[in-house]
Hints:
By secondary structure, the chain is of the alpha/beta class. The longest helix is centred in the N-terminal third of the chain and has 30 residues, at 66-95. The strands form 4 sheets. A 6-stranded mixed β-sheet has the order 1-3-2-4-8-10, sandwiched between helices. A 3-stranded antiparallel β-sheet has the order 5-6-7. Strands 9-11 form a two-stranded antiparallel sheet. Helix 3 (66-95) packs antiparallel against helix 6 (140-163), helix 3 packs parallel to helix 16 (358-381) and helix 5 (116-123) crosses helix 6. The chain folds into 2 domains: 8-388, no CATH class; 432-676, SGNH hydrolase (Rossmann fold, 3-Layer(aba) Sandwich), CATH 3.40.50.1110. It is built from 28 helices and 13 strands.
Amino acid sequence: MDKSYYRSEIDGLRAIAILPVILYHTHSFSFAESGFLGVDIFFVISGFLITNILLTEIQNTKKISLLNFYNRRVRRIIPALFFVTIISIYPAYKLLFPFTLKDFGQSLMGVSTLLPNLIFILQGGYFAEANSLKPLLHTWSLGVEEQFYFFFPLFLLIFWKFLNKNIIILIIILFSLSLILSNDLSNGEYIQENFLLPITRMWELFAGAIISYYNFFLKKKEFSFFTKNILSFLGLVLLLYSFILFNEATPHPSFLTLIPVLGTCLIILFSSKETIIGKILSFKYLVGIGLISYSLYLWHYPIFVFARHYNFLTNSDSGNYYTLSNLTYFFLILIVFIISYFSWKYVEQPFRKKKISNKNLITSVTVSFLIIFMSGFLINKNDGIKERFPKKVVNYLDYNYSYPPNEIIFPCAESLSEKIKRKIQYEKYIQKEIFEKCRILGNKKYKPKTVLLGDSFTHSLLLQINDYLLDQNMSMYYHLRACPRLIGFMDHGDCFRAFKSIINNPDIENVILFFRWSDKFKSVNYFDSKYFCGEVRCKDLNEAKLYEQLEKDIQNNFREKINLLLKNDIKITIIYPLPYIGYDVPKFLASRVLNDKEPVANIDYKDFTYRNSNVIKFFNSFEEGIIRVHPEKIFCNSFVKDKCVANNKEKVFFWNKTHLSIDGGNLLANEIIKKVKNF
């Protein structure tokens, strides 16, 4: 029986998937913050349809023609993908700064070899370029699907011979293992790998394969019209619920992702042209969007990204890429739909309907592959072709990468391979405590008596302090795990364990504290007729009230910790708040140079004092026993009156909108060294 007949409701479901994805990628509409779930819907649909095709062929011919299968997949995916990728090269060359273009070159090589998701994993990490600025980032999901398409027919071909219909047992086992792994990696240090790896996404495609298998071999009779309506409606409810439940903080993919996956499965299984949900999904405009959904997916992301880069380069006073208006996005989406329709009609359709011969298919794909891969190779080899920009621009942009190496920033880190090996061997993770050798700066031969506790704000201090300690034959422990933003600062997780270890260690004489204080203290401040929660404007008055109560609790808890340290004769150094610039400083300065404007980046001093007034007042309330270091005395009212500066001529003090560069960190580190002296 042929189960691969056309179902208009599946194209309608594709429309339901693509529209939230497009809105989500604007980063402009709060109601679409869970739009990334559209990709999960696509995965289930793909797993279902591909399995349908393969099982139909097995039933009809008792074999699988890999040549025919891969020919169909190439015709479906590659021409449009390669076409959009080639078109993207020119605007990328004109608009992207060198390091962003170098990333783009690597992604070109990833797309051409069908491994873009793996390339983006390698590009990732704490200091990676913002995802919303990478034109081909969305191709990661195509990489996952392409890798599944390569693996799955081979898997069926090999194991069907031995297991026949019992292959479903093996599929369910693989589905379960992939799901468990994805849930395990959904919290912690490997969230990005979990999101992009095929092994943690495969269960979603297998979910589609399982319901296809059910249709072929387990379904004994048709469900009643009433039952199909109820179950397909339940599927839609689950999808809608997941779009409400999920946001960017939700562990994903994880066990929670079963909600949208199950919803998609129920709709595929039980909707038809006769059911209410099937009729809704078969609405001609939804079907039309579904038909061009692949082109919509391919075009929308690079168009949005290039618009952001163009906006930034031509509006240097704004200092923010992301401030495209909703009206701008409306017109961009309109352009995306128009381009996608023509892309579907004149690129997708001719290849899919085999109006293009196999010979011409091979020729066009081969030529496109060479263009894309070689362009990516040359861009990457030439470091993003820096000579496109004046030397002054390149100097500023180099500050985007002015931070210590990972081995200093992330000491004692467990690698992904070590974690997977440990999980396989059922070994429990042994937490590296604060007094480990890997957490020592300076000369490790000497026993440390000082601990630096902080978050990412401390990164820029480490090289200068390390050099000083080596020169003075001294050493220091450092612990940079960002403390959780919860009631009771230092009452949870790594920071709490570190604090207890310090109290119980008689060798420790000094503790240095440096955090993003307004953020950690849930500080709420009022100025310019606005409430600010931490460093950003509160969403509403309710959030301001919540922050106000949290701030009191956190301050009381912090005071208890400080008093306990002082009681144990431990000297405390508090590094006061750092100015919050609020935009990417190196790129802002580069943009101003390109627009023939003075390369100056600063904020009003009163803005800094207002945003941090509660924290500063609280720290000042400690009467004695505290060594105080004031970053504002370095960066505010020193170079320019009534301003906190982010650069001084060619020197840039911040590598992004919040973190000090090595140059900025050296200035602050020297001030700390003067104050602390005896580490």
